[in-house]
UniProtKB/TrEMBL annotation:
The keyword Phosphoprotein does not apply. Pfam families: GAF, HATPase_c, HisKA. InterPro entries: GAF (IPR003018), GAF-like_dom_sf (IPR029016), HATPase_C_sf (IPR036890), HATPase_dom (IPR003594), His_kinase_dom (IPR005467), HisK_dim/P_dom (IPR003661), HisK_dim/P_sf (IPR036097), Sensor_HK_Regulatory (IPR050736). Residues 165-356 form the Histidine kinase domain. GO terms for molecular function: phosphorelay sensor kinase activity. PROSITE patterns: HIS_KIN. It catalyses: ATP + protein L-histidine = ADP + protein N-phospho-L-histidine. Keywords: Kinase, Transferase, Two-component regulatory system. It comes from Halorubrum distributum JCM 10247. Its EC number is 2.7.13.3. This is histidine kinase. The keyword Transferase applies.
Length: 371
């Protein structure tokens, strides 16, 4: 049911088929039971009121008992049970039934049930009720992940909108200020030229801060869907996009190494680490990247980080990380968003950022990678 070549909907249908086969009944239904209605979300039934997207009155179904009690319900023949006079027997025409509640974020979403118009010869056992309850819990987790991923996508869309507004409303007037400063620099000398150099430096820093803030807006959220990313390729792409001056890069990554990640955010992580190496390690710093399936590391031979910044990075202390620049905060956010671990070792001979557990994500990320 967690095969990577199946979509979330296909996995739920597979769960329904597994339940039907295990219980030896004809029908399997995932329902939504909000607002007193019974809406069929997924099923193997092809026609009639209980086909997919069908809606009936919840009070006329066996599932109402599951919704009311929150407990699994099962019987092989309603006529031989305490429910022999229940209206659902006539309304649904189902004699055999096993169902359990499906919960999302602690609230009842609906039910997962299995049924048959014919009575079953063997009684429904406690183990079979437990099986359906476990299957319903799995379906609830699958639906919950879909819901959370949808919320993440919506959040990211809002952040992208914010980033667009910032880019337009701040960068445009800033570009004008830089342009007029450059024009003024061409017509002055002496102390006035020195003052304008300071102005230009401050404007450049503002432009850099805006870029870093926009990056934080996009990278500061939890990561949803992930794909297998070629580690060597993303490292080299990141290096090519950074102004590395006379710095050198050495790459020692095991052949075929991949990382389960959001590729764009992973590249941003490397870009910011490389930028930090060059800005604080000097124009001719030597940078080395190593990696395998367990993780990766970026090291340089620069003068090292201040002790408080090293401790802040290891402890994910955002306030102190910001004191050394937003670039390292982006690094920390990307790592935490993926759920990875970061270790930082720094002395006067260089700094090493080691990221581990990169492929120890929850099974859902593997399962949804192909969706």
């Amino acid at each position: 049911m967690t095969a990577t070549d199946l979509s979330a909907e296909e996995r739920i249908r597979k769960a329904i088929d597994v339940g039907r086969e295990y219980l030896g009944v004809d029908n399997g239904v995932l329902s939504y039971t909000g607002d007193g209605r019974y809406e069929v979300v997924e099923t193997n039934i092809q026609s009639g009121p209980y086909a997919r997207r069908g809606v009936v009155d919840l009070d006329g179904t066996w599932c109402r008992h599951v919704v009311e009690s929150g407990e699994p319900l099962g019987f092989a023949d309603a006529r031989d049970s305490e429910y022999r006079d229940d209206d659902a027997l006539e309304t649904t025409g189902l004699h055999c039934y096993v169902g359990a509640a499906v919960d999302i974020d602690g609230e009842t979403y609906g039910t997962l049930c299995f049924s048959d118009a014919e009575p079953r010869n063997d009684p429904i056992t406690e183990s079979e009720r437990d099986f359906v309850a476990v299957l319903a819990e799995w379906v609830g987790s699958e639906l919950e992940r879909q819901k959370h991923y949808a919320e993440l996508r919506e959040q990211n869309e809002r952040l992208d909108e914010f980033a667009g507004i910032v880019a337009h409303d701040l960068r445009n007037p800033l570009s004008g200020a830089i342009g007029f400063t450059e024009l003024a620099q061409d017509h002055v000398s002496g102390q006035a030229a020195e003052f304008l150099d300071r102005v230009r430096g401050a404007l450049d820093r503002m432009e850099s801060m805006i870029a870093e803030c926009l990056m934080l807006a996009k990278e500061g959220t939890d990561v949803g869907e992930r794909t297998r990313v070629d580690l060597d390729g993303v490292v080299r792409n990141a290096w090519d996009t950074v102004r590395t001056r006379d710095a050198t890069l050495s790459v020692d990554i095991a052949t075929g190494t991949t990382v389960l990640a959001d590729e764009m955010r992973l590249q941003r992580l490397f870009e910011n680490l490389f930028r930090n190496c060059v800005e604080h390690g000097g124009p001719d710093v030597a940078v080395t990247v190593t990696g395998d399936e367990g993780g990766f590391a970026v090291a340089d031979d620069g003068p090292g980080l201040p002790t408080d910044v090293e401790h802040a990075l290891t402890a994910a202390d955002a306030e102190n990380i910001k004191s050394f620049g937003l670039g390292l905060l982006v690094v920390q956010r990307v790592i935490s968003g993926h759920g990875w671990d970061l270790a930082v070792d720094s002395d006067d001979e260089g700094t090493r950022f080691a990221v581990s557990d990169v492929n120890a994500a929850e099974p859902v990320h593997e399962a949804l990678a192909a969706d």
